[in-house]
Specification:
Structural class: alpha+beta
Keywords: Cell adhesion, Cell junction, Cell membrane, Disulfide bond, Glycoprotein, Immunoglobulin domain, Membrane, Receptor, Repeat, Signal, Tight junction, Transmembrane, Transmembrane helix
Largest sheet: 6 strands, mixed
GO biological process, one term: homotypic cell-cell adhesion
GO molecular function, one term: cell adhesion molecule binding
CATH class of the domain at 24-142: Mainly Beta
Radius of gyration: 63 Å
GO cellular component, one term: basolateral plasma membrane
Strand content: 25-35%
Pfam families: Ig_3 (PF13927), V-set (PF07686)
Amino acid sequence: MEPSITRVCCFLLSLFAGLVSGLEITSTEPTSIEKASGQSVKLDCQFTLAPEDSGPLDIEWSLLSSDNQKEDKVVILYSGDRAYEDYYAPMKGRVHFNSADPKNGDASINLTGLKSSDSGTYQCKVKKAPGIRSRKMLLIVMVKPSKPSCYTEGPTQEGKDVVLKCISREGTNPLQYSWEKTSDSKLLPASAVLDPVGGTINVRNASASASGTYRCTASNRVGTEECVLYLNVTPPPNTPGIIAAAIITVLLILIIIAIILFCCCRARHRKKYEKEICNEIREDVPPPKSRVSTARSFTVGSQRSSLGSMSPSNLHEYALKPQYDKIPSSEEYERPPSHNPLPPPSGAKMAGPNLSRMGAIPVMIPAQNRDGSIV
């Protein structure tokens, strides 16, 4: 019974010794690494081989998927004494083996120009039949805070609550904000309330002593950035003066409008008055020439109709009539009354019989007014 037990123990000891002396990964570096974006990192994977590990050496680095239903992404390979470094397109040109000959026991890789998308769990798997070993490491690529923007919120007047804000648009959480005064006493106002997570500082019942230069610093585990703000606390505005100025401005505007309306109405009335005067002047204009021709034709017709009624006895009386009973010519008719020439002085009167012997034709000329109408 005892020899059989001894044989079993020897077999187990030999098996355990074979396992211990086989392929092993000997790296002792931390399995969780934090780096800032843009930096470089070395993922360590050192191994040792045993004499019985006689198969071909294969090294595989892969980025494990957080979703079990998705496949892992192979990042870099070493197989058949050849390295395949451009195997994963998103990391092309940024991932390399640390050793030119990984067969020497160094399967570590270097990642350069880290991006936030490089974060994840990486696995190093070394195979040399019959030995197989693997090691996992967590890489966290953190983005340092971007340069924050500093500004005030609300009125910056004495007696008011003044809020200073500081915001960084980029950066891996958690972000922390801190404020400090860099001018005068370099002490924050006693009434200031700081929010390190929200990045605000509330100065309650601000006074002129709160004026000065302030600096905000945004930070996380991989970097810091800062911005500067100048705060000027001003006295409250003169409200009664503002109201009085507003009233005066409104009154001036109303006065200007009234003056403009008055000028327009006056100009319109003047234009209407001038038009009425023009119409009155036109009423005194002499009648058109057509009336003259009409009157003259009428006069000639009347003369012809009255020739038969003339006799030598009344011809003398007709010749003795004043000059204004004659028919005016067109020039005399068109000339204003004030410019009509005076009738020439009457010459020696000629008797009717003498006129008949001289070949005169008796004509009766009806009397006319100054405007040309027949009496």
